[in-house]
Fold:
Amino acid sequence: MIRRLFATLLLVWMLGFAIFAATLPAPAALLTKTDAIVVPTGGPGRIERGLVALRAGAAHKLFVSGVDRQVRPREFAVQYKVTPAEMACCVALGFNALDTRGNALETASWVRAGHYRSLRLVTSDWHMRRSVGEIEDVLPPHVRIVRDAVPTEPSLKTLFLEYHKLLASWLGHL
Structure:
């Protein structure tokens, strides 16, 4: 009886991991409009993709969550080639988040303050499911999220760790 239960759980875990790894989310069309773009820091290509979406008119505001406290807005602007006009009108930096849950809380606060009703979430393909789950958990229910995944080539280790973080996140929401 215990062996069958263990074997069933192992099979479910293996199947879940295979589906997770084989069905990573894709980028969203830039034609899809939202009120704002949110980019949690932490992976290559995320901020660049957020800026591409902003400049394409996918939204009028960009919020970067989890920026290192030592980074100054001017340094950020230079590194990512953001003009002073773009920084002044359209780009906001959040310095309080240290992890995915912190990104969600920081984002929810910014969304509430700006009264946004929709957002484009830009993050790595392997990180999207957990990031969306954490943000949906703290956002007002009327806020629509467009998933805009940055394609990556994650290692098996990255997928393995993220799959377990996702499972832990889901269990934490039960």
Remarks:
- Helices lie at 2-22, 46-55, 73-80, 84-89, 100-114, 128-138, 156-172.
- The chain has a mean pLDDT of 96.
- Residues 12 and 18 are 10 Å apart (CA to CA).
- The domain at 26-172 is CATH 3.40.50.620 (Rossmann fold).
